Amino acid sequence: MTQGEQRREQPSGGGDWQRNVLRELGGAGGSSPSETGAGDGRGPASARPGEPTLRLVHPAPARPPATAPEAATAPEAGADDVPGPQVPGPVPSSAPRAPDGPASPARMSGTPAAAGPEPERPATPSVPVRDPRLPASPAPESSPTLDPRLLLALGRPLHGDSVTRRTGRALRKLTSSVNQDVAEQTRIARELQQPVTTGRVVAVTSIRGGVGKSTVSALLGRTLNHYRHDPVLTLEADTALGTLPVRMGAEAVRWTCADLAPILHPSMQLTDVTGYLVPVSDGGWLLPAGRGQVGPPLDMTSYRKVTLALRRYFAVTVADCETLPGEVARTAMDTAHARVVVAPTTAEGVGATRQVLDWLARLPHSALATTVVALVSNTPDTLLDGKTAAGHLKEAGVTVVPVPYDRHLAGGGPIRTDLLSHATQQAVLRLAAEVMGRAVRVR
Fold first, then answer.
1. pLDDT tens, 139-154?
2. Does the bond joining 325 to the residue before it have cis omega, within 30 degrees of 0?
């Protein structure tokens, strides 16, 4: 030990060195001798009153009761000297301290220096508030609508009309007047483009599966989207493994009606909603009911919540419902603005459809007045006379639109409107115009 160190260990001013140390520990916010200047040649008695003190990283010993003289002379602790939470330090108290650097200007001039930054307090764990617009569960995985091996097995799609029929129609157009055709097309376009004050819902159902319900829904969705300038949604509300995503040309699906029901919120914008939908290649949007897997069926509550919420964003929603008498189908037929019942051109199909029309006539409101029957022919060799079948259905007080057999539609797979036969195009345009006219008139 050098002589200078021995002199620094002597108490200055004849005071009690240990008592001064305890007083500094208790009154100055827990300072150690090495941190208050005792190790650099200045005792605690000579420390300047305005000089900042460093906090101990280890808990300070309990302060002994101060006597009256000591309480009178003890320095008052400021607001910055209130000890914060004790954070374990990286270096033990017995570790040798680094040599002192040059004194700061505040220490050299004797002016009080600003207190050092507070020690970083541990972060208080907070409960995250979930955005109601975000899903509560992880996002589902995207699933292809068709197995890639089946896509390779698909052949080239056929045109709805044969080459001979297309050639004959082109020759007839050269010799016939086009004024009548232009007038009819203008009338249909005017019907399809009628403005709406609130979103309209068109429900499509049938008496059994496999009669062309999803095909008619896809054709209506594509036609309305082509003629209208506001957004159109095609929604699948079929509890079975429906074919609407395939017919609409969707390569993969991700979010379903059941997934979107708890997510929809009134504060969402159209851009937020479309992030959960499938964009259709030639325009419009698609919301499937499943991801091509056997799962829980769509319930009535989810269907009503989704359709009521999406009416704020889409002018027209075409709902491909389950077959009757399912619960979702009955709810959709009862709450929609317009209804389409798809009937096959068979004796048993027409008979069952007539029973459905009689049920619609017994509903509390006039559901039959807003119902259109699409009489679909799924085979070129139909045994039932089409005029007789249409007349039997018209007796219930509905409009019947025959949809002829189409080779392109019968082949399955994605629908291409440019490959539809001319007769199918005209039938779909008339069907869409009849449905839209009824949906707009409902208030």
1. 888 888 887 788 777 7
2. yes
